[in-house]
Each structure stands twice: as C-alpha cells, then as structure tokens.
C-alpha cells in the first residue's frame, strides 16, 4: 500500500495514509467496533466503482451502464442471504445508522414511539439519543440492564413496553457483552403490537459465523454494520422478510439516500465471500475465546467487568471499584500512549459524564485478525493492568509500549502491503 498515485498528486494525504497504516501495524486496535479488512476488500472499496451512479436496484436503475454494478450488488445480496439465512437483504445503506434510518422511515411516522436501551447501558445514538434525528423525530423511552447483574432486564423491558405502548422495540447494542435472547424481546414486541428491530451492528460477523444467536427469522427487521466483526468494509445492511422488502427498499432509496456507494457495495460482496469460507467461523470463534481470555486476565488483576465476563467480542470494565480515581478518559489516554487503542465508555449506573465516563470498552476483533490467540490476549490484559495501575509512570508506559511493539511484530498486519 504505497499510495503512489496519491503521493504524485497530494503528498500531505499520502503521508497521512502511510502514517495511518504504520499506526495500525504498530499498535493494538482494541476499539470493539473496529477491525482490519483484507487487501481484497481494500482494493474493492478503492476501485473505479466509486465513479458509478446506480440509483435504483439491480435490473431497475435510473442510469445506464449499470451491468457490472448490477453484478456486484447481486453478488453482495446473494452472499448476505446465504450468510444470514435472510429472505430479503438491502446492501445499499451507507452505514449502520442509515440502515436503522431506513427501518424507522419505512415503518414509523414522526411522533411514533421507540423503546430502546439507554445509551449509558450500551445503546446506540441511532436508537433515540436526543442529539440524533431519532431523538428529535420520535418519542423515545429507554430500558436498562439490571444494575446488579449487568444483564438485560427482560422483565423490566416487558413492563415498560406495556406502559409505554411503543411502535417499535429496538434491540442490539454497542457495549453489551452478553448473548441476547431475541425471542424474548420479540415476544415483548408482539404483546404490545410493536415492530422489533434487532440491530446487530457489533455482532454481524459473530451472527454470520453462528457463534452468537441470530435474530434473523425472529425479529421483523435486522440491521447491521459491515465493518465491525464482519470484515466487509465500511457500510450497512438491512434484512427482513419478503413482506417488508418493498417498504425497506424504497426507504433506503429514494427515501433516505441517493446513489449507493457502489465501491463499498463491492467491498461488502468480497467481505461476505470471505465470511462464507470455513476459516471465518474459526476466526469468529477465536474472537470470542480471545475476549473471554482478556476478561479473565483483567478480572485476575482486580478489575470489575460489567456482567462479570463476556459471551461475545468485547469486555466492558467498570473502573469505579478497582480504580475510583481513574476515569475512562484517563485510562484511554494512558493506554493510547502505550500503544493500546480502545475507548472510555459509559457503564450502567454511570456517575460521570459521557465525555469522561467510568469505564473502558475493549474488543478483540482486530487483534484476532492479526493472529492473536488466548495467550496473547491474556498478556494484553496484563499490559492494560500495568498501565492503569501506573497511570502517571512514564517509565512503565514506555516499557509497555515496547511489549506492544513486540506483540505487533509477532503478529504482523498487511505484511505484503
Ligand atoms: C456501530 C453501531 C451502529 C452503526 O454505526 P455506523 O457508524 O453508522 O455504522 C448502529 N447500531 C449499533 C448498536 C452500533 O454499535
């Protein structure tokens, strides 16, 4: 990835791209929503399909010259159907937020009611946050996790649904480390005659690989991101039964978007093909085994994990008990200095501000892509503990930075690039 053509035109951007590649290679990417796609997906997303307008859908476009765009989009759709067992798939949403937007726009009127998980408890901006269009167009009420266990409070959700009478119940989360009982949430939605949107943005790859329970065929609508646990490049996807296919398609285009980003649709097609290979299932299993190992290591170092552990690709650490004087933001900054990149995160029962919360969230999709196993992830747990226990100690941070570089060299990224 020498970006030679960029360099000829724009050395400043070429430098930034090269530095970014270096950064990804030499540091640990533990932001739970990030991953490293293959060179094949990078090439597809960086292709001349960026030039092509393809408003409409395969076989029925508003522009000429779409025969290859059609081929690419049909491949993406067919592969997604096979991966998820979905009846209908729309691969055009620019990202996960736009996938959610399509579902709301298709099924709700302004002023209708959304019942979703509180952002502090692991929800997402596009589920009704006041700063997001969802919080401004719809009436929103939010359910929570059980403050004692950190698990979803399904009974509390059911009670709230009866009282609030929502038009749609949203499940699927950004910082929830446990498996999700989709049927129970579907029952809640059915009981109050609401739709159920299951947003699997974070766990798209785990669901595709069958290592996390699937809401496809259970929930009315399933949305996802294609760049988190599945390595299909930046984008979004909506799945539903045939009965809602036309509503969803017209809510994506022309409802909420113009021309699809066909280069990204090509990335999705390639990434989905990779995810259909047996190696992808091994990858997804390793992601979960690695998160479990990381969680165990952190617990052994005295950290408190929300829900006590994990069933998926991430752990959520509540620093308040073990390190009452350390905020998530402080931890994030010191860890970044040591080459460990993750994010401060709100925790259930948050007592600080969302800008400097009480927790950190750490995921293993990126590390697993570059070859980390359970032993490596235990070691990463040791390194995280060493930094947070010695937040102000520059010598310790420098030592950890060296250990990080060694781990990176042992597990190289984009080797042939
Ligand atoms: C990441 C995420 C999304 C989508 O985010 P985009 O950045 O728009 O792709 C949607 N829902 C949840 C729960 C998420 O975690």
Automatic annotation (TrEMBL):
Binding site for (6S)-5,6,7,8-tetrahydrofolate: 119, 123-125, 242, 353-355
Name of the protein this chain belongs to: Serine hydroxymethyltransferase
PROSITE patterns in UniProt: SHMT
Enzyme class of the recorded protein, top EC level: transferase
Site annotation Plays an important role in substrate specificity: residues: 227
Annotated source species: Halobiforma nitratireducens JCM 10879
Alphabetical list of InterPro entries matching this protein: PyrdxlP-dep_Trfase, PyrdxlP-dep_Trfase_major, PyrdxlP-dep_Trfase_small, Ser_HO-MeTrfase, Ser_HO-MeTrfase-like, Ser_HO-MeTrfase_PLP_BS, SHMT-like_dom
Cellular compartment(s): Cytoplasm
Complex formation: Homodimer.
Gene that specifies this protein: glyA
Disordered as annotated region, ranges: 344-373
Keywords, sorted A to Z: Amino-acid biosynthesis, Coiled coil, Cytoplasm, Methyltransferase, One-carbon metabolism, Pyridoxal phosphate, Transferase
Pathway(s) per entry: One-carbon metabolism; tetrahydrofolate interconversion; Amino-acid biosynthesis; glycine biosynthesis; glycine from L-serine: step 1/1
Assigned protein family: Belongs to the SHMT family.
